[in-house]
Protein backbone atom coordinates (compact mmCIF):
# COMPACT_ATOMS: atom_id res chain seq x y z
CA UNK A 1 0.00 0.00 0.00
CA UNK A 2 1.17 3.50 -0.82
CA UNK A 3 1.24 6.06 2.00
CA UNK A 4 1.53 9.66 0.82
CA UNK A 5 2.39 12.51 3.16
CA UNK A 6 0.46 15.35 1.58
CA UNK A 7 -0.69 16.11 -1.95
CA UNK A 8 2.83 16.71 -3.27
CA UNK A 9 3.60 13.00 -2.76
CA UNK A 10 0.76 11.91 -5.02
CA UNK A 11 2.06 10.88 -8.48
CA UNK A 12 1.18 13.21 -11.33
CA UNK A 13 -0.15 10.25 -13.28
CA UNK A 14 -2.42 8.99 -10.50
CA UNK A 15 -5.24 6.98 -12.05
CA UNK A 16 -8.86 7.97 -11.60
CA UNK A 17 -9.70 6.77 -8.11
CA UNK A 18 -12.45 5.92 -5.69
CA UNK A 19 -11.82 8.16 -2.69
CA UNK A 20 -12.92 7.72 0.91
CA UNK A 21 -12.40 10.81 3.01
CA UNK A 22 -12.55 11.45 6.75
CA UNK A 23 -10.40 11.55 9.86
CA UNK A 24 -11.10 7.84 10.51
CA UNK A 25 -9.56 8.00 13.98
CA UNK A 26 -9.69 4.47 15.37
CA UNK A 27 -11.04 2.94 12.14
CA UNK A 28 -14.09 1.66 14.04
CA UNK A 29 -17.08 -0.21 12.58
CA UNK A 30 -18.68 2.97 11.24
CA UNK A 31 -15.49 3.90 9.42
CA UNK A 32 -15.22 0.38 8.03
CA UNK A 33 -18.66 0.73 6.51
CA UNK A 34 -17.49 3.79 4.55
CA UNK A 35 -14.22 2.12 3.52
CA UNK A 36 -16.03 -1.07 2.56
CA UNK A 37 -18.36 0.82 0.26
CA UNK A 38 -15.38 2.53 -1.36
CA UNK A 39 -13.73 -0.84 -1.95
CA UNK A 40 -16.95 -2.19 -3.51
CA UNK A 41 -17.15 0.76 -5.92
CA UNK A 42 -13.46 0.39 -6.80
CA UNK A 43 -13.73 -3.29 -7.59
CA UNK A 44 -16.77 -2.65 -9.76
CA UNK A 45 -15.02 0.16 -11.65
CA UNK A 46 -11.55 -1.42 -11.77
CA UNK A 47 -10.10 1.62 -10.02
CA UNK A 48 -7.75 2.06 -7.05
CA UNK A 49 -9.08 2.94 -3.59
CA UNK A 50 -7.53 6.00 -1.96
CA UNK A 51 -8.26 7.07 1.60
CA UNK A 52 -7.72 10.71 2.55
CA UNK A 53 -7.18 11.27 6.25
CA UNK A 54 -5.92 14.24 8.25
CA UNK A 55 -3.14 14.95 10.73
CA UNK A 56 -3.41 16.66 13.14
CA UNK A 57 -7.09 16.29 14.00
CA UNK A 58 -9.00 19.20 12.40
CA UNK A 59 -10.49 20.29 15.74
CA UNK A 60 -7.02 20.99 17.13
CA UNK A 61 -6.46 23.51 14.32
CA UNK A 62 -9.91 25.03 13.94
CA UNK A 63 -10.45 25.30 17.71
CA UNK A 64 -6.99 25.19 19.34
CA UNK A 65 -6.95 23.42 22.66
CA UNK A 66 -10.08 21.39 21.93
CA UNK A 67 -8.57 18.55 19.93
CA UNK A 68 -9.77 15.13 21.10
CA UNK A 69 -7.73 12.33 22.59
CA UNK A 70 -6.74 10.16 19.63
CA UNK A 71 -7.67 6.50 19.33
CA UNK A 72 -4.90 5.72 16.85
CA UNK A 73 -1.58 7.06 15.68
CA UNK A 74 -1.31 7.84 11.99
CA UNK A 75 0.90 4.79 11.54
CA UNK A 76 -1.64 2.51 13.19
CA UNK A 77 -4.45 4.10 11.19
CA UNK A 78 -2.60 3.39 7.95
CA UNK A 79 -1.93 -0.22 8.97
CA UNK A 80 -5.61 -0.75 9.75
CA UNK A 81 -6.68 0.80 6.45
CA UNK A 82 -4.29 -1.41 4.54
CA UNK A 83 -5.98 -4.41 6.13
CA UNK A 84 -9.29 -3.26 4.65
CA UNK A 85 -8.07 -3.50 1.07
CA UNK A 86 -7.09 0.12 0.51
CA UNK A 87 -4.53 0.80 -2.23
CA UNK A 88 -3.21 4.12 -0.94
CA UNK A 89 -3.58 6.52 1.97
CA UNK A 90 -2.94 10.23 1.67
CA UNK A 91 -2.27 11.87 5.04
CA UNK A 92 -3.21 15.52 4.52
CA UNK A 93 -1.57 17.94 6.95
CA UNK A 94 -4.52 19.85 8.37
CA UNK A 95 -3.45 23.48 8.40
CA UNK A 96 -5.19 26.83 8.69
CA UNK A 97 -4.69 27.22 4.95
CA UNK A 98 -6.48 23.95 4.26
CA UNK A 99 -9.24 24.88 6.70
CA UNK A 100 -9.73 28.20 4.88
CA UNK A 101 -10.49 26.59 1.50
CA UNK A 102 -14.03 26.98 0.24
CA UNK A 103 -15.90 23.74 -0.44
CA UNK A 104 -15.42 24.34 -4.17
CA UNK A 105 -11.68 24.91 -3.82
CA UNK A 106 -11.27 21.82 -1.64
CA UNK A 107 -13.07 19.64 -4.17
CA UNK A 108 -11.12 21.05 -7.10
CA UNK A 109 -7.65 21.03 -5.52
CA UNK A 110 -7.90 17.71 -3.68
CA UNK A 111 -10.54 15.42 -5.14
CA UNK A 112 -10.44 16.47 -8.79
CA UNK A 113 -6.93 17.74 -9.55
CA UNK A 114 -4.97 15.17 -7.52
CA UNK A 115 -7.15 12.06 -7.42
CA UNK A 116 -9.45 12.51 -10.43
CA UNK A 117 -12.24 11.08 -8.31
CA UNK A 118 -14.80 8.71 -9.78
CA UNK A 119 -16.69 8.10 -6.53
CA UNK A 120 -16.28 9.78 -3.16
CA UNK A 121 -17.37 7.78 -0.09
CA UNK A 122 -18.06 9.63 3.18
CA UNK A 123 -20.15 9.33 6.31
CA UNK A 124 -23.50 11.08 6.21
CA UNK A 125 -22.28 13.67 8.77
CA UNK A 126 -19.24 14.67 6.69
CA UNK A 127 -18.54 18.42 6.61
CA UNK A 128 -15.80 20.23 4.72
CA UNK A 129 -14.60 23.62 3.57
CA UNK A 130 -14.24 26.91 5.41
CA UNK A 131 -16.31 26.95 8.61
CA UNK A 132 -17.63 23.48 7.63
CA UNK A 133 -19.81 25.14 5.02
CA UNK A 134 -20.03 22.03 2.84
CA UNK A 135 -22.04 18.90 3.61
CA UNK A 136 -22.86 15.74 1.66
CA UNK A 137 -25.45 17.56 -0.47
CA UNK A 138 -22.87 20.19 -1.34
CA UNK A 139 -20.41 17.46 -2.20
CA UNK A 140 -22.92 15.69 -4.43
CA UNK A 141 -23.78 18.91 -6.27
CA UNK A 142 -20.12 19.71 -6.87
CA UNK A 143 -19.46 16.13 -7.92
CA UNK A 144 -22.26 16.16 -10.45
CA UNK A 145 -20.61 19.13 -12.16
CA UNK A 146 -17.14 17.63 -12.01
CA UNK A 147 -17.68 14.00 -12.96
CA UNK A 148 -17.87 12.06 -9.71
CA UNK A 149 -20.66 10.59 -7.61
CA UNK A 150 -21.01 10.58 -3.83
CA UNK A 151 -21.83 7.65 -1.56
CA UNK A 152 -22.82 9.02 1.87
CA UNK A 153 -23.10 6.17 4.35
CA UNK A 154 -25.56 6.33 7.28
CA UNK A 155 -24.12 6.28 10.77
CA UNK A 156 -23.86 2.77 12.21
CA UNK A 157 -25.41 2.05 15.61
CA UNK A 158 -24.53 -0.65 18.11
CA UNK A 159 -26.00 -1.62 21.47
CA UNK A 160 -24.63 1.51 23.16
CA UNK A 161 -25.66 3.96 20.46
CA UNK A 162 -24.06 5.30 17.31
CA UNK A 163 -20.56 4.00 16.73
CA UNK A 164 -18.42 7.10 16.55
CA UNK A 165 -14.92 8.05 17.59
CA UNK A 166 -16.42 10.28 20.30
CA UNK A 167 -18.39 7.32 21.69
CA UNK A 168 -15.32 5.06 21.74
CA UNK A 169 -13.20 7.76 23.39
CA UNK A 170 -15.77 7.92 26.17
CA UNK A 171 -15.50 4.18 26.73
CA UNK A 172 -11.71 4.34 26.85
CA UNK A 173 -11.79 7.33 29.19
CA UNK A 174 -14.05 5.34 31.54
CA UNK A 175 -11.75 2.31 31.43
CA UNK A 176 -14.32 0.15 29.63
CA UNK A 177 -11.79 -1.25 27.21
CA UNK A 178 -13.87 -4.38 26.54
CA UNK A 179 -16.76 -2.31 25.15
CA UNK A 180 -14.27 -0.14 23.26
CA UNK A 181 -12.85 -3.28 21.66
CA UNK A 182 -16.36 -4.36 20.62
CA UNK A 183 -16.93 -1.02 18.87
CA UNK A 184 -13.49 -0.97 17.29
CA UNK A 185 -13.51 -4.61 16.24
CA UNK A 186 -10.17 -5.07 18.02
CA UNK A 187 -8.54 -4.03 21.31
CA UNK A 188 -7.82 -0.34 21.83
CA UNK A 189 -4.13 0.34 21.31
CA UNK A 190 -1.77 2.69 23.13
CA UNK A 191 1.77 2.84 21.81
CA UNK A 192 5.01 4.62 22.49
CA UNK A 193 8.71 4.32 23.20
CA UNK A 194 9.99 2.64 26.36
CA UNK A 195 11.84 5.12 28.54
CA UNK A 196 13.42 5.13 32.00
CA UNK A 197 11.02 5.03 34.94
CA UNK A 198 11.61 4.65 38.66
CA UNK A 199 12.82 1.06 38.14
CA UNK A 200 10.78 0.17 41.22
CA UNK A 201 9.01 -2.70 39.46
CA UNK A 202 12.23 -4.65 38.97
CA UNK A 203 13.02 -4.37 42.68
CA UNK A 204 9.54 -5.72 43.44
CA UNK A 205 9.93 -8.66 41.07
CA UNK A 206 7.72 -7.22 38.33
CA UNK A 207 9.94 -5.32 35.86
CA UNK A 208 7.83 -2.94 33.81
CA UNK A 209 8.18 -1.08 30.54
CA UNK A 210 7.37 2.60 31.05
CA UNK A 211 5.85 4.05 27.86
CA UNK A 212 6.34 7.58 26.62
CA UNK A 213 3.13 7.92 24.61
CA UNK A 214 2.42 10.49 21.89
CA UNK A 215 0.68 13.66 23.00
CA UNK A 216 -3.14 13.51 22.90
CA UNK A 217 -3.25 9.70 23.01
CA UNK A 218 -6.49 8.21 24.34
CA UNK A 219 -5.31 6.51 27.53
CA UNK A 220 -7.70 4.35 29.58
CA UNK A 221 -8.80 5.38 33.07
CA UNK A 222 -6.40 4.83 35.94
CA UNK A 223 -6.29 1.19 36.94
CA UNK A 224 -4.86 -2.20 36.07
CA UNK A 225 -5.59 -4.02 32.81
CA UNK A 226 -4.92 -7.25 30.97
CA UNK A 227 -3.31 -6.47 27.62
CA UNK A 228 -1.09 -7.73 24.85
CA UNK A 229 2.32 -6.10 24.55
CA UNK A 230 3.79 -6.00 21.04
CA UNK A 231 7.45 -5.07 20.56
CA UNK A 232 8.09 -3.21 17.27
CA UNK A 233 4.44 -3.80 16.28
CA UNK A 234 4.83 -2.67 12.66
CA UNK A 235 7.81 -4.88 11.90
CA UNK A 236 7.52 -8.04 9.85
CA UNK A 237 7.69 -10.27 12.92
CA UNK A 238 6.73 -8.42 16.13
CA UNK A 239 7.20 -10.07 19.50
CA UNK A 240 3.79 -10.26 21.20
CA UNK A 241 3.49 -11.07 24.90
CA UNK A 242 0.70 -11.24 27.50
CA UNK A 243 0.94 -8.39 29.98
CA UNK A 244 -0.53 -6.70 33.03
CA UNK A 245 -0.65 -2.94 32.59
CA UNK A 246 -0.85 -0.21 35.22
CA UNK A 247 -2.18 3.22 34.31
CA UNK A 248 -1.93 5.94 36.94
CA UNK A 249 0.28 7.76 39.40
CA UNK A 250 1.44 4.96 41.71
CA UNK A 251 -0.25 6.48 44.79
CA UNK A 252 1.29 3.90 47.15
CA UNK A 253 4.62 5.63 46.48
CA UNK A 254 3.14 9.17 46.42
CA UNK A 255 3.56 9.44 42.67
CA UNK A 256 2.25 12.48 40.82
CA UNK A 257 3.11 11.76 37.20
CA UNK A 258 0.55 9.69 35.29
CA UNK A 259 2.24 6.72 33.64
CA UNK A 260 1.50 3.71 31.48
CA UNK A 261 3.60 0.74 32.62
CA UNK A 262 3.46 -2.83 31.33
CA UNK A 263 4.73 -6.03 32.92
CA UNK A 264 5.25 -8.82 30.38
CA UNK A 265 4.09 -11.89 32.31
CA UNK A 266 6.94 -14.03 33.62
CA UNK A 267 9.59 -12.16 31.65
CA UNK A 268 12.53 -10.55 33.42
CA UNK A 269 14.96 -10.91 30.51
CA UNK A 270 13.66 -8.17 28.23
CA UNK A 271 15.64 -5.04 27.39
CA UNK A 272 13.03 -2.74 25.87
CA UNK A 273 14.58 0.67 26.48
CA UNK A 274 14.31 2.78 23.35
CA UNK A 275 12.07 0.22 21.63
CA UNK A 276 8.69 1.07 20.12
CA UNK A 277 5.95 -0.99 21.74
CA UNK A 278 2.16 -1.20 21.56
CA UNK A 279 -0.33 -2.21 24.24
CA UNK A 280 -3.63 -3.72 23.10
CA UNK A 281 -6.00 -3.39 26.06
CA UNK A 282 -8.26 -6.41 26.60
CA UNK A 283 -9.95 -6.07 29.99
CA UNK A 284 -10.09 -3.77 33.01
CA UNK A 285 -9.03 -5.68 36.15
CA UNK A 286 -9.40 -3.10 38.92
CA UNK A 287 -9.16 0.57 39.74
CA UNK A 288 -6.15 2.40 41.11
CA UNK A 289 -5.62 1.81 44.85
CA UNK A 290 -3.31 3.26 47.46
CA UNK A 291 -2.01 0.36 49.55
CA UNK A 292 -0.95 0.55 53.19
CA UNK A 293 2.43 -0.99 52.55
CA UNK A 294 4.54 -2.76 49.93
CA UNK A 295 3.51 -6.23 51.13
CA UNK A 296 -0.15 -5.43 50.47
CA UNK A 297 0.77 -4.09 47.05
CA UNK A 298 2.78 -7.21 46.18
CA UNK A 299 -0.08 -9.45 47.26
CA UNK A 300 -2.47 -7.58 44.95
CA UNK A 301 0.03 -7.55 42.10
CA UNK A 302 0.20 -11.34 42.31
CA UNK A 303 -3.59 -11.50 41.99
CA UNK A 304 -3.52 -9.03 39.09
CA UNK A 305 -1.00 -11.15 37.21
CA UNK A 306 -3.05 -14.30 37.82
CA UNK A 307 -6.20 -12.56 36.54
CA UNK A 308 -4.40 -11.29 33.45
CA UNK A 309 -3.04 -14.77 32.81
CA UNK A 310 -6.54 -16.27 32.91
CA UNK A 311 -8.07 -13.63 30.67
CA UNK A 312 -5.31 -13.84 28.07
CA UNK A 313 -5.02 -17.60 28.15
CA UNK A 314 -1.35 -17.41 29.05
CA UNK A 315 0.31 -20.57 30.44
CA UNK A 316 1.14 -20.79 34.11
CA UNK A 317 4.93 -21.24 34.43
CA UNK A 318 4.51 -23.29 37.58
Q: Could you characterize what this model shows?
A:
The protein is α/β, with parallel strands linked by helices and 318 residues long. The chain is 31% helix and 26% strand. It contains ten helices and 14 strands. The strands form three sheets. A six-stranded parallel beta sheet has the order 1-4-3-2-5-6, sandwiched between helices. Strands 9-10-13-12-11-14 form a six-stranded antiparallel beta barrel. Strands 7-8 form a two-stranded antiparallel sheet. A hairpin with a 7-residue loop joins strand 11 and strand 12. The termini are far apart.
Within the CATH hierarchy, at the fold level, what is the topology of the largest domain?
Answer: Rossmann fold
**SSE string:** EEHEHHEHHEHEEEHHEHEEEEEH
CATH superfamily of the largest domain: HUPs
Rg? 22 Å
Largest sheet: 6 strands, parallel
Strand line-up in the sheet with most strands? 1-4-3-2-5-6
CATH class (first level) name of the largest domain: Alpha Beta
Q: Do you know the CATH architecture of the largest domain?
A: 3-Layer(aba) Sandwich
How many structural domains can be distinguished in the coordinates? Answer: 2
Inertia-based shape: elongated
Low-pLDDT stretches: none
Mean pLDDT score, rounded? 93
Strand content: 25-35%
Number of helices: 10
Describe the secondary structure blueprint for this structure:
Layout: E1 2-5, E2 18-21, H1 29-45, E3 49-55, H2 58-62, H3 74-82, E4 88-93, H4 96-99, H5 103-112, E5 119-123, H6 136-146, E6 149-153, E7 157-158, E8 161-162, H7 165-173, H8 177-184, E9 188-195, H9 200-204, E10 209-212, E11 223-231, E12 239-248, E13 259-264, E14 276-287, H10 294-312
Parallel strand pairs: 1-4, 2-3, 2-5, 3-4, 5-6
Antiparallel strand pairs: 7-8, 9-10, 9-14, 10-13, 11-12, 11-14, 12-13
Helix pairs in contact: 5-6, 7-8
